[in-house]
Amino acid sequence: MKTLCPVILCGGSGTRLWPLSRRLYPKQFMDLAGRTLFGNTVARAGSLPQCGTMFISCHEDHRFFAAAELQRLGVDARIVLEPLSRNTGPAIALAAFAACAEHQDPLLLVLPSDHTVEPLDAFTKAVAEACITAESGYLVTFGIVPQGPETGFGYIKQGEPLSSGYVVERFVEKPDEGRARAMLNEGGFFWNSGMFVFKASVYLEELQKLAPSMYEACFAAWEGKKLDLDFIRVGAEAFAAAPSVSIDTAVMEHTARAAMIPLSAFWSDLGSWEAFHDAGSKDRAENCCVGDIVAQDSHGCYLHSTGRLVAAIGVSNLVLVETPDAVLVADRACSQDVKKIVEHLHLAGRTEKDTHLRVFRPWGNYEVLAAGEGFQVKRIVVSPGSLLSLQLHHHRAEHWVVVSGTARVTLGEQALLLSEDQSTYIPLGTVHRLENPGRIPLVIIEIQTGRYLGEDDIVRLDDTYGRGIGKGV
Fold first, then answer.
1. How far apart are CA 145 and CA 131, in angstroms?
2. Hey, which of 39, 142, 350, 358 would disulfide with 367, CB 3.0 to 4.6 Å?
3. How far is CA 334 from CA 20, 146, 309, 319, in A?
4. Which letter does DSSP use for residue 51 in this model?
5. Which ranges in 103-196 belong to alpha helices (H)?
């Protein structure tokens, strides 16, 4: 059998999972009790006996989330960066070019990073069957045996049987409930999982035939690639010319080589809080409770706290999600409509659409603790061995107090080493840098003072993480 290379797609934004999922902290990287959906998917793919080199297709804004999770899991993978979102068709094309550069026409196992599939042995068996069919030149997708008339998924109609699996007769867009029930009564319909197995060459051949402009743009982008630390950056201008189209629309709905393997397992794309309720552990009253929750006389709720105590009394079928800067309350039946709130925030220019109070950076994270006229207080955490950019500010001064760990500080021409309870002052306009030379996280409190405290008041003079020199965040 050919080498099987997992391709993990993690370019989505998860707008229906606001306020936990944000544009710069999407659902696949959310901390869910010490785990992430991305990490679960990587582990699932890595457990396959025939697993070869793994490829991660990732938006460049999220590259350090992916790299940190891979490091935590001890997984070596190639991270291909998308300079902008162009849907799954182009993302898979880049991964196919990358895989062919390392292997002789490998099989690709394409997996969204935010799905859950249980049990593992059912998934493993289905992948093995899909590999046999893909070796024959088919583009294989997985059809989930439906558990009910779901209106949030597309469907696949099975056609003639193959030695393993079936030819795909047709794809069906997300139906209304009446149509979904009719398809289940007719039989032979499966949920469209968005997971695939095929030869890299077969996908590229079909893409070139069925969506030539996408193929040409992706080929040019791949030809313009360069390495940046552990990341593969493709040509941004060329990639921008690729149509933003899914693999289903670009290829699967038009190719004569589509096949399907049935997968009888619990599967969810976890695309809404309703899906999280269905997939989560529940109490006797069918409440799914995450975090510090007290629920009395309540039934069928999804209750999620990230820090504060959340109490629910006498409510049913609600979604309540608490974060430090936003709280969502919704009827479970309306959980698909959360994206409308995100659209409203976008039109209103609200930052809650994009970021949490805790903002992640490649060196660690910071959290705004207090802010007012002319001042701002942050808690900054720098990962062991990491450092911020060499920078200066035109509009603010800063005072740093070390809470724990060791700080190496560049302050103009000086080099300081500060430990717990020690501090330093950075005058306005002074070149400075913060570094953690130790083995534990460095935690400091930063007090900013000045007439303007925006994140764009940074003039970057040097940076380890390839974020560019000059004004930036």
1. 19
2. 358
3. 17, 22, 24, 9
4. B
5. 120-135, 177-186
Based on C-alpha coordinates, what's the Rg of the chain? 24
Rounded CA-CA distance 301/320 in Å is: 8
pLDDT of residue 150: 86
Q: What are phi and psi of 124, to 5 degrees?
A: -60, -40
Task: Please provide the size of the chain in residues.
Answer: 473
Please state the pTM of the whole predicted model: 0.86
171-188 as b/e: b if 16+ CB within 10 A? bbeebeeeebeebbeeee
Structure confidence at residue 436 (pLDDT): 97
DSSP, collapsed to helix, strand or coil, labels residue 350 as coil
- pLDDT at site 251: 97
b/e code 67-103 from CB counts within 10 Å (16+ = b)? bbbbeebeeebbbbbbbeebbbbbbbbbbbbbbbeeb
* Number of neighbouring beta carbons within 10 Å of residue 378: 20
SS3 118: strand
Q: How far is CA 376 from the centre of its chain?
A: 30
- CA-to-CA separations, 124 to 266, 278, 298, 328, in angstroms, rounded: 13, 23, 39, 37
Q: φ, ψ for residue 97 (rounded to 5)?
A: -65, -40
Q: Are residues 13 and 21 in contact, defined by beta-carbon separation less than 8 angstroms?
A: yes
Output the DSSP codes for 217-246. HHHHHHHT-EEETTEEEPPHHHHHTS----
Q: Which two tokens stand for residue 199?
A: 């030869």
Cα separation, 237 vs 257, whole angstroms: 32
- What pLDDT is stored for residue 30 in this prediction? 85
CB atoms within 10 A of CB 464: 14
Could you give the residue ranges of the DSSP H alpha helices within 224-358?
236-240, 247, 273-279, 338-348
